[in-house]
């Protein structure tokens, strides 16, 4: 349950996003007010025609009818335009927040512990939920004050007392909402959250469906789900029956206003009404008075949903962020040194690296060996800026590398991780990702060197086969070779390879060795590997497992 | 779309009394709204004659009745919708358990599950935003027809636009459905444009492709917003149409009066048309609600109507002789042209410990799926005690073969409840024994609520290694003679992994053990090992 302070902060954050876009947000309000104006005028014409029909007053004829029809068309057009502008008002804000949020997630990098699904929900669904606030709640909240005031003015110009009656009813709306609503609203919000939890249980069990099926528990769980829903329903309805009182309160006020106005004008008519048109107008204007208030109460839950989403987004977008130094040019040759580097990415586990010291000279290839968990990948990940060490020093060409912006570290590096990811697109595009300005011939050469061509020859569309989400499924080893081709294409002074042959059988591995030798030649390279075949790459070996055993 | 919605209604048939009852209340509530404005207007207009006093007198109870009915309408409709929705969820759950026993998203398709959940919840729109306002508007039109029946000309002028408004939702729904489908598709594309770079974050950053990914995301965002705008424009148009039709009814009544129609009847018609404006103006938008519900129902039924992946011949199944498990030249592919097993054979005799070694992603998990009878082989045979697996009911297979899969789920429930999924009747002592074997007993003892500690969704309140060990303890609970462990030590640190594998022989004593792993540590005490090479199993020295 969010605290009132959280809710206020979220609201303040939402309002900050609006800054500078007041004009765009004021347009739907203006159009809404114009529509109200049309409705008031049409109501007056209807009252005048009705009075004429009843023989209570003169005037009001076919001319009025034509005018009223025109007004109806006009207000329909205004309503259309109003919705269009409402929608546009939120679009720019959403697009900006989405771009910023995405950039932020990339800046946080792989060190961020959130799952991919959670991040995607933040970027897609949470930002969509904000639309309710900008496109519906803000205009509805503004119109809920201005539009009834406009109707009130019109009524007042005919009959002050009628206006007074409506004013009292209008002021009682928030009071009735408060009496029946606020307590219940808080309670019902809690229940709505509980409803979310019930949906959460359903989702949780569906996600684990395979596990339930495996233990023959699917039917038992189906029954348990049914019972949980039933129990929840009874509790929710108890709360909703109070929450719905706020709707009933609004209806009661509307009905009372009509009845009171009917009584006033009926009584006046009995005594010979001075202005029958005004009397009829006052009554017919009641729906126009309450309509914006109803729209507001309907938009209320959208604001609640947006506030919840705003809290999550605010945490992401306003998290402290320190930009690092930027390099003028990428150095041609790279010398590396780790001094007493300690890194503990997960506080619950022992450090991944414990006071590690080593150096690599320019043009040298270092092989990192040792059992899984000895920290081979951690060395490479630190050099990629995917994390920051807790202690120690990493120097590149004698300069403190930790002061650089992580993106700068990556500019001088060609990297291949353990789990190669194929992006949706062709194999060619996936390789070219590493260097967008590469010529087709360069991409082809990289693919050849990484032995990608050996398997694309068998594919129906060769290098233009679509892979990744919705595309052809390459095996782990094939995906890894595509990633290796990226490293070839990148042509960077520092090469970092994490188990480049992990998924390959010995024959392919031996074939790849030649290409790898060419890749690391003349460059500074660190290759983490288990494979005895890759020992041929360099005589320089660092056994992290042995270091750990020593101490 | 209509067929799908009709099927939803049939699913709700057991709740028809509650659902219909709430519709009746909604109709009564709409008519009370009409009555208030009609009586008030009559009171004012007939004030001179004195008959207005009677009308105003009748108004008093209505002033209280109308809010009461409105309250009852909302309460009853929500109560009925909750019930029906809960039924749908349980129905859907049962169907999926039967048709997709391996779970949704077994092979990617990330957000499909989340979308389906949303679809179930969107079905309430069919009722709350479609049927309830529809019934209210129908009641209003019928009441008008009854009251103005005496003057056919007037009736035609007033009722015709209202009837058109009533017909708008079903007429507009198909177009709205197309626009809604386009919007959903554009949103899916946006999600993919966000998910793909996030999932491949390391490779993206390594390639320095941040700006290009962002440009792609922005393009997908623009497309989605354009689709949203088209959908919203349809909604707005429907709303404007509804308003115009309401106004047409009102002006029709006035024109009848201006043309010399009987004043009291003209007055009544004007007031009825004015009172109708609200329920009818909501109606055209119900088309969008129907379209959404229809699209949601379509996806739900598509998932729920997936043919069952395995069928078992009727009649009594032969009894397996013992727990010998054998694969004979098994071939299998999830999709045509992408074979996973290409003639794999092996044998696991009772009490043996055997490992299958292969790199991750090579298809070992597909073998685990076959052994649970989530699927049947495309060719070749899997036998258990001499009986082909395909002849045994899946439940029977799963009672004899317990699989710890890589995706074993820890539910958002207590430690004890998570364990009892494997053995509902197990006493606490048995749970503790299983926890001890998995090396988790000391940790659970140290928790403030012991076995009653909650694990969080997907086990998020536990560390990765703890969650894995809990899944392991759960797999050790049932007394199945064969235990299949798929990468059981993934996520464990090296020390725990060694300790666990060392005790594996004791923990699984008296059972057969099939270990699917990408590497051996040398402490597993195996009888035999196979190497997984291109979908075939080659015996390797243990």
Structural notes for this entry:
The complex is a heterodimer of chains A (about 550) and B (about 550). Chain A is of the alpha/beta class and about 550 residues long. Chain A has a domain of about 220 residues: Rossmann fold (3-Layer(aba) Sandwich), CATH 3.40.50.300. Chain A is about 65% helix and about 10% strand. Chain A is built from 18 helices and eleven strands. In chain A, strands 6-9-10-3-11 form a five-stranded parallel β-sheet, with helices on both faces. In chain A, strands 2-1-4-5 form a four-stranded antiparallel β-sheet, with helices on one face. Chain A has a two-stranded antiparallel ribbon with strand order 7-8. In chain A, strand 4 and strand 5 form a beta hairpin. The two termini of chain A are about 50 Å apart. The model of chain A has no long low-confidence stretch (mean pLDDT about 85). Chain B has two domains: about 240 residues, Up-down Bundle (ABC transporter transmembrane region fold); about 220 residues, Rossmann fold, CATH 3.40.50. Chain B has 15 helices and ten strands. In chain B, a hairpin with a 2-residue loop joins strand 4 and strand 5. The two termini of chain B are about 60 Å apart. The chains are: A alpha/beta (about 550), B alpha/beta (about 550). Chains A and B meet through helix 2, helix 3, helix 4, helix 5 and helix 6 of A and helix 2, helix 3, helix 4, helix 5 and helix 6 of B.
């Amino acid at each position: 349950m969010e605290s009132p302070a959280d809710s206020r902060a979220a609201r303040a954050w939402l309002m900050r996003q609006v800054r500078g876009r007041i004009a765009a947000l004021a347009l739907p309000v203006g159009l809404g007010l114009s529509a109200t104006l049309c409705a008031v005028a049409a109501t007056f014409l209807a009252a005048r025609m009705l009075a004429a029909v009843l023989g209570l007053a003169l005037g009001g004829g076919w001319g009025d009818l034509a005018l009223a029809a025109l007004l109806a068309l006009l207000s329909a057009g205004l309503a259309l335009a109003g919705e269009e502008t409402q929608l546009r008002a939120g679009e720019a804000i959403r697009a900006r927040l989405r771009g910023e949020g995405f950039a932020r997630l990339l800046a946080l990098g792989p060190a961020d512990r959130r799952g991919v699904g959670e991040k995607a929900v933040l970027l897609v669904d949470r930002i969509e939920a904000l639309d309710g606030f900008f496109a519906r709640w803000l205009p509805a909240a503004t119109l809920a004050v201005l539009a009834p005031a406009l109707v009130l003015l019109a009524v007042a110009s005919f009959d002050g007392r009628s206006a007074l009656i409506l004013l009292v009813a209008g002021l009682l709306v928030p009071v009735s909402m408060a009496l029946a609503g606020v307590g219940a609203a808080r309670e019902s919000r809690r229940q709505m959250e509980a409803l979310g939890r019930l949906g959460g249980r359903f989702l949780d069990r569906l996600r684990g469906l395979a596990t339930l099926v495996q233990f023959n528990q699917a039917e038992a769980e189906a029954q348990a789900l049914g019972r949980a829903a039933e129990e929840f329903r009874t509790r929710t309805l108890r709360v909703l029956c109070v929450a719905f009182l706020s709707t009933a309160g609004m209806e009661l006020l509307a009905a009372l206003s009509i009845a009171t106005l009917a009584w006033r004008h009926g009584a006046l008519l009995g005594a010979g009404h001075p202005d029958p048109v005004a009397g009829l107008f006052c009554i017919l204007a009641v729906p126009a008075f309450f309509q914006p208030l109803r729209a507001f109460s309907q938009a209320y839950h959208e604001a609640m949903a947006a506030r919840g989403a705003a809290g999550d987004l605010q945490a992401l977008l306003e998290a402290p962020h320190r930009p690092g130094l930027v390099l003028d040019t990428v150095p041609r040759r790279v010398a590396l040194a780790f001094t007493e580097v300690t890194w503990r990415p997960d506080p619950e586990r022992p450090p991944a690296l414990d006071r590690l010291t080593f150096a690599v000279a320019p043009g040298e290839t270092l092989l990192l060996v040792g059992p899984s968990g000895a920290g081979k990948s951690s060395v490479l990940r630190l050099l990629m800026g995917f994390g920051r060490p807790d202690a120690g020093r990493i120097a590149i060409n004698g300069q403190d590398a930790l002061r650089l912006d992580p993106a700068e570290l990556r500019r001088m590096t060609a990297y291949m991780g353990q789990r190669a990811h194929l992006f949706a697109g062709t194999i060619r595009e996936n390789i070219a990702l590493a260097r967008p300005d590469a010529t087709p011939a360069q991409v082809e050469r990289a693919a050849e060197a990484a032995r990608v061509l050996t398997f694309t020859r068998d594919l129906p569309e060769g290098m233009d086969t679509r892979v990744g989400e919705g595309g052809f499924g390459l095996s782990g080893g094939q995906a890894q070779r595509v990633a290796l081709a990226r490293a070839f294409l990148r042509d960077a002074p520092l090469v970092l390879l994490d188990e480049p042959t992990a998924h390959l059988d010995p024959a392919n591995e031996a074939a790849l060795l030649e290409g790898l030798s060419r890749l690391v030649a003349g460059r500074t390279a660190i290759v983490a590997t288990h494979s005895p075949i890759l020992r041929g790459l360099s005589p320089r070996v660092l056994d992290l497992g042995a270091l750990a055993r020593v101490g | 779309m209509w067929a799908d919605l009709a099927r939803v209604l049939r699913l709700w048939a057991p709740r028809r009394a509650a659902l219909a009852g709430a519709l009746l209340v909604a109709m009564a509530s709409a008519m009370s709204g009409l009555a208030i404005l009609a009586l008030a207007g009559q009171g004012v207009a007939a004030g001179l004659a004195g008959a207005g006093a009677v009308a105003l007198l009748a108004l008093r109870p209505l002033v209280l009745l109308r809010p009461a009915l409105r309250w009852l309408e909302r309460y009853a409709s929500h109560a009925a919708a909750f019930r029906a929705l809960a039924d749908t969820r349980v129905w859907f759950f049962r169907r999926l358990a039967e048709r997709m026993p391996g779970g949704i998203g077994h092979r990617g398709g990330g957000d499909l599950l989340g979308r389906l959940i949303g679809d179930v919840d969107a079905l309430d729109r069919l009722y709350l935003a479609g049927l309830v306002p529809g019934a209210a508007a129908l009641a209003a039109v019928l009441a008008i027809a009854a009251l103005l029946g005496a003057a056919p000309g007037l009736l035609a002028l007033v009722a015709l636009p209202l009837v058109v408004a009533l017909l708008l939702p079903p007429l507009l729904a198909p177009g709205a459905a197309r626009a809604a489908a386009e919007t959903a598709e554009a949103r899916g594309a946006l999600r993919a444009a966000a998910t793909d770079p996030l999932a491949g974050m390391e490779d993206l950053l390594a390639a320095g492709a941040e700006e290009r990914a962002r440009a792609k995301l922005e393009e997908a965002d623009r497309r989605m917003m354009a689709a949203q705008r088209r959908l919203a424009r349809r909604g707005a148009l429907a709303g404007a149409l509804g308003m115009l039709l309401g106004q047409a009814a009102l002006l029709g009544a006035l024109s009848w009066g201006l043309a010399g129609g009987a004043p009291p009847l003209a007055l009544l018609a004007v007031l009825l048309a004015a009172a109708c404006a609200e329920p009818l103006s909501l109606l055209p938008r119900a088309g969008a609600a129907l379209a959404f519900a229809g699209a949601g129902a379509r996806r739900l039924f598509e998932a729920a109507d997936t043919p069952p992946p395995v069928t078992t011949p009727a009649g009594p199944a032969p009894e397996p002789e013992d727990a010998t498990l054998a694969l004979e030249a098994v071939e299998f592919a999830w999709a045509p042209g992408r074979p996973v097993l290409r003639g794999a054979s092996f044998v696991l005799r009772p009490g043996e410990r055997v490992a299958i070694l292969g790199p991750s992603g090579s298809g070992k998990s597909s073998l685990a799926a076959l052994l649970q009878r989530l699927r049947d082989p495309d060719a070749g045979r899997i036998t258990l005690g001499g009986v082909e697996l395909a002849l045994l009911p899946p439940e029977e297979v799963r009672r004899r073969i317990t699989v710890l899969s890589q995706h074993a789920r820890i539910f958002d429930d207590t430690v004890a409840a998570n364990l009892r999924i494997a053995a509902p009747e197990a006493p606490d002592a048995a749970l503790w024994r299983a926890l001890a074997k998995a090396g988790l007993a000391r940790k659970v003892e140290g928790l403030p609520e012991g076995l009653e500690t909650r694990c969080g969704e997907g086990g998020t309140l536990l560390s990765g290694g703890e969650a894995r060990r809990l899944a392991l303890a759960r797999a050790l609970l049932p007394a199945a003679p064969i235990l299949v462990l798929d990468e059981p030590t993934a996520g464990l640190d090296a020390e725990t992994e060694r300790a666990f594998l060392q005790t594996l022989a004791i923990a699984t004593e008296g059972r057969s053990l099939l270990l699917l792993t990408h590497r051996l540590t040398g402490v597993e005490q195996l009888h035999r090992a196979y190497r997984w090479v291109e979908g075939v199993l080659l015996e390797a020295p243990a």
